[in-house]
Amino acid sequence: MKKTFARILFWDDPCLRTPAEQMACDEALAGVAEAPVLRTYRWAKPAVTFGYSQRLQNVQTLAHGRPVMRRWTGGGTVFHGGELTLGLAIPASGAFTHLTSAQIYQAIHEALLPAVREILPEAKLVALEDCRCGPVCFESPVAYDIVAGSRKILGGALRRSRGGALYQGSLHADIPPLALAEALADSVSPIQNLPALENAAATLVRERYNDPAWLNLR
Question: What is the average per-residue pLDDT within 159-185?
Protein backbone atom coordinates (compact mmCIF):
# COMPACT_ATOMS: atom_id res chain seq x y z
CA MET A 1 0.00 0.00 0.00
CA LYS A 2 1.39 3.38 -1.03
CA LYS A 3 2.17 5.64 1.93
CA THR A 4 1.41 9.35 2.19
CA PHE A 5 5.09 10.32 1.97
CA ALA A 6 8.06 8.63 0.32
CA ARG A 7 10.32 9.68 3.21
CA ILE A 8 9.87 11.19 6.63
CA LEU A 9 12.30 12.43 9.26
CA PHE A 10 11.45 11.22 12.76
CA TRP A 11 12.18 12.69 16.20
CA ASP A 12 10.86 10.88 19.25
CA ASP A 13 11.68 13.73 21.62
CA PRO A 14 12.47 12.43 25.14
CA CYS A 15 12.61 15.87 26.77
CA LEU A 16 9.77 16.92 29.08
CA ARG A 17 9.57 20.56 28.11
CA THR A 18 7.49 23.52 29.25
CA PRO A 19 4.35 24.33 27.22
CA ALA A 20 6.18 27.24 25.59
CA GLU A 21 9.09 24.99 24.61
CA GLN A 22 6.78 22.28 23.25
CA MET A 23 4.96 24.73 20.99
CA ALA A 24 8.21 26.33 19.88
CA CYS A 25 9.75 22.98 18.93
CA ASP A 26 6.75 22.11 16.79
CA GLU A 27 6.77 25.46 15.01
CA ALA A 28 10.53 25.21 14.48
CA LEU A 29 10.16 21.88 12.63
CA ALA A 30 9.03 23.57 9.43
CA GLY A 31 12.05 25.85 9.31
CA VAL A 32 14.75 23.18 9.38
CA ALA A 33 13.26 20.22 7.51
CA GLU A 34 14.07 19.40 3.90
CA ALA A 35 11.45 16.64 4.04
CA PRO A 36 8.31 15.98 6.12
CA VAL A 37 9.29 15.60 9.77
CA LEU A 38 7.34 14.00 12.61
CA ARG A 39 8.05 14.86 16.24
CA THR A 40 6.42 12.82 19.02
CA TYR A 41 6.56 13.92 22.66
CA ARG A 42 4.99 13.81 26.10
CA TRP A 43 4.31 16.33 28.86
CA ALA A 44 6.09 16.87 32.17
CA LYS A 45 2.84 17.90 33.90
CA PRO A 46 -0.75 18.68 32.91
CA ALA A 47 -1.12 21.73 30.67
CA VAL A 48 -3.61 23.28 28.26
CA THR A 49 -2.96 24.55 24.74
CA PHE A 50 -5.46 26.49 22.68
CA GLY A 51 -5.92 27.54 19.08
CA TYR A 52 -4.45 30.75 17.69
CA SER A 53 -7.79 32.55 17.36
CA GLN A 54 -9.26 31.63 20.75
CA ARG A 55 -9.73 34.10 23.61
CA LEU A 56 -7.42 33.64 26.58
CA GLN A 57 -10.08 34.47 29.18
CA ASN A 58 -12.38 31.73 27.91
CA VAL A 59 -9.56 29.18 27.98
CA GLN A 60 -8.46 30.12 31.50
CA THR A 61 -12.01 29.50 32.70
CA LEU A 62 -11.88 25.98 31.29
CA ALA A 63 -8.28 25.32 32.46
CA HIS A 64 -9.01 25.65 36.22
CA GLY A 65 -5.48 26.78 37.06
CA ARG A 66 -3.50 24.59 34.69
CA PRO A 67 -0.71 26.31 32.70
CA VAL A 68 -2.04 27.54 29.35
CA MET A 69 -0.28 28.29 26.06
CA ARG A 70 -1.55 29.65 22.75
CA ARG A 71 -0.69 27.47 19.75
CA TRP A 72 0.51 28.72 16.37
CA THR A 73 -2.04 26.33 14.85
CA GLY A 74 -5.83 26.69 15.04
CA GLY A 75 -8.34 24.38 16.64
CA GLY A 76 -9.91 24.20 20.09
CA THR A 77 -8.73 23.81 23.67
CA VAL A 78 -6.65 20.69 24.36
CA PHE A 79 -5.95 19.28 27.83
CA HIS A 80 -2.53 17.61 27.85
CA GLY A 81 -1.36 15.02 30.31
CA GLY A 82 -0.56 11.40 29.60
CA GLU A 83 -1.24 11.37 25.88
CA LEU A 84 1.30 11.21 23.06
CA THR A 85 1.48 14.51 21.18
CA LEU A 86 2.47 14.85 17.52
CA GLY A 87 4.02 17.67 15.53
CA LEU A 88 4.16 17.06 11.78
CA ALA A 89 5.75 19.62 9.46
CA ILE A 90 5.14 19.29 5.71
CA PRO A 91 7.25 21.44 3.36
CA ALA A 92 5.39 23.51 0.77
CA SER A 93 7.27 21.74 -2.01
CA GLY A 94 5.66 18.41 -1.09
CA ALA A 95 2.70 16.54 -2.46
CA PHE A 96 0.19 18.36 -0.23
CA THR A 97 0.73 21.79 -1.78
CA HIS A 98 -2.47 21.67 -3.85
CA LEU A 99 -4.74 20.35 -1.07
CA THR A 100 -7.06 22.33 1.16
CA SER A 101 -6.51 22.32 4.93
CA ALA A 102 -9.43 19.90 5.38
CA GLN A 103 -7.93 17.56 2.77
CA ILE A 104 -4.53 17.64 4.48
CA TYR A 105 -6.16 16.85 7.83
CA GLN A 106 -8.07 13.96 6.27
CA ALA A 107 -4.96 12.57 4.54
CA ILE A 108 -2.91 12.60 7.76
CA HIS A 109 -5.56 10.80 9.79
CA GLU A 110 -6.32 8.30 7.02
CA ALA A 111 -2.60 7.46 6.95
CA LEU A 112 -2.40 7.06 10.74
CA LEU A 113 -5.62 5.03 11.08
CA PRO A 114 -4.06 1.61 10.28
CA ALA A 115 -1.49 2.09 13.06
CA VAL A 116 -4.26 2.98 15.50
CA ARG A 117 -6.29 -0.06 14.41
CA GLU A 118 -3.39 -2.35 15.32
CA ILE A 119 -4.27 -1.53 18.94
CA LEU A 120 -7.92 -0.50 18.57
CA PRO A 121 -9.49 -2.47 15.69
CA GLU A 122 -12.78 -0.58 16.06
CA ALA A 123 -11.16 2.82 15.38
CA LYS A 124 -12.60 4.84 12.50
CA LEU A 125 -12.69 8.32 11.01
CA VAL A 126 -15.47 10.65 12.15
CA ALA A 127 -18.15 11.21 9.51
CA LEU A 128 -19.58 14.67 8.86
CA GLU A 129 -22.92 13.75 10.43
CA ASP A 130 -21.21 12.73 13.69
CA CYS A 131 -19.48 16.06 14.33
CA ARG A 132 -20.20 18.03 17.52
CA CYS A 133 -19.42 21.68 18.15
CA GLY A 134 -17.72 22.86 21.33
CA PRO A 135 -14.64 24.66 22.68
CA VAL A 136 -12.89 21.58 24.14
CA CYS A 137 -11.23 19.55 21.39
CA PHE A 138 -11.65 16.06 22.84
CA GLU A 139 -15.30 16.61 23.70
CA SER A 140 -16.10 17.82 20.19
CA PRO A 141 -15.19 15.46 17.31
CA VAL A 142 -14.85 17.10 13.91
CA ALA A 143 -14.74 15.50 10.48
CA TYR A 144 -11.85 13.04 10.03
CA ASP A 145 -10.89 12.85 13.70
CA ILE A 146 -10.28 9.25 14.82
CA VAL A 147 -12.68 7.70 17.33
CA ALA A 148 -13.07 4.28 18.91
CA GLY A 149 -16.68 3.77 19.89
CA SER A 150 -17.77 7.00 21.56
CA ARG A 151 -14.21 7.96 22.57
CA LYS A 152 -12.12 10.39 20.54
CA ILE A 153 -8.64 8.94 20.02
CA LEU A 154 -6.90 11.44 17.76
CA GLY A 155 -7.62 15.07 17.02
CA GLY A 156 -5.43 17.84 15.74
CA ALA A 157 -4.99 21.34 14.38
CA LEU A 158 -3.34 22.84 11.31
CA ARG A 159 -1.53 25.99 10.26
CA ARG A 160 -0.56 26.71 6.66
CA SER A 161 2.16 29.18 5.67
CA ARG A 162 4.45 29.89 2.75
CA GLY A 163 6.82 27.30 4.16
CA GLY A 164 4.23 24.53 4.17
CA ALA A 165 1.88 23.12 6.80
CA LEU A 166 2.19 22.31 10.49
CA TYR A 167 -0.09 19.70 12.05
CA GLN A 168 -0.31 19.25 15.83
CA GLY A 169 -2.24 16.28 17.17
CA SER A 170 -2.97 14.50 20.45
CA LEU A 171 -3.21 10.71 20.50
CA HIS A 172 -5.04 8.93 23.33
CA ALA A 173 -3.94 5.39 22.55
CA ASP A 174 -0.81 3.40 23.33
CA ILE A 175 0.68 3.37 19.82
CA PRO A 176 4.50 3.12 19.47
CA PRO A 177 5.75 6.44 18.08
CA LEU A 178 7.84 4.72 15.41
CA ALA A 179 4.72 2.91 14.17
CA LEU A 180 3.14 6.29 13.49
CA ALA A 181 6.11 7.42 11.42
CA GLU A 182 6.09 4.13 9.52
CA ALA A 183 2.37 4.53 8.82
CA LEU A 184 3.04 7.89 7.19
CA ALA A 185 6.03 7.10 4.97
CA ASP A 186 7.79 4.36 3.02
CA SER A 187 11.15 5.38 4.51
CA VAL A 188 11.80 6.68 8.04
CA SER A 189 15.06 8.38 8.99
CA PRO A 190 16.08 9.94 12.31
CA ILE A 191 16.32 13.70 12.17
CA GLN A 192 19.94 14.82 12.00
CA ASN A 193 19.96 18.60 12.44
CA LEU A 194 18.77 18.77 16.04
CA PRO A 195 21.13 21.62 17.08
CA ALA A 196 19.65 23.88 14.39
CA LEU A 197 16.14 22.93 15.43
CA GLU A 198 16.82 23.47 19.13
CA ASN A 199 18.34 26.88 18.38
CA ALA A 200 15.33 27.88 16.28
CA ALA A 201 12.99 26.70 19.04
CA ALA A 202 14.91 28.65 21.70
CA THR A 203 14.54 31.80 19.61
CA LEU A 204 10.79 31.22 19.26
CA VAL A 205 10.46 30.69 23.02
CA ARG A 206 12.25 33.96 23.69
CA GLU A 207 10.61 36.07 21.00
CA ARG A 208 7.09 34.60 20.90
CA TYR A 209 5.94 32.01 23.39
CA ASN A 210 7.38 33.58 26.55
CA ASP A 211 6.14 37.02 25.52
CA PRO A 212 2.95 37.90 27.45
CA ALA A 213 1.68 39.65 24.33
CA TRP A 214 1.44 36.25 22.59
CA LEU A 215 -0.61 34.69 25.34
CA ASN A 216 -2.83 37.79 25.53
CA LEU A 217 -3.18 38.16 21.76
CA ARG A 218 -6.97 37.84 22.08
Answer: 93
Task: Name every residue whose Cβ is closer than 8 Å to that of residue 93 and which is 6 or more positions away in sequence.
Answer: 164
- The number of domains in the chain is 1
Give CA–CA dist 98/43, Å, rounded. 34
93 class by beta-carbon count within 10 Å (0-12 exposed, 13-18 middle, 19+ buried): exposed
Host domain of residue 66 = 5-97+156-215
We report the CATH number of the domain holding residue 11 as 3.30.930.10
pLDDT tens readout for residues 122-155: 999 988 666 655 554 445 678 899 999 888 999 9
Q: In terms of pTM, does the model score above 0.85? A: yes
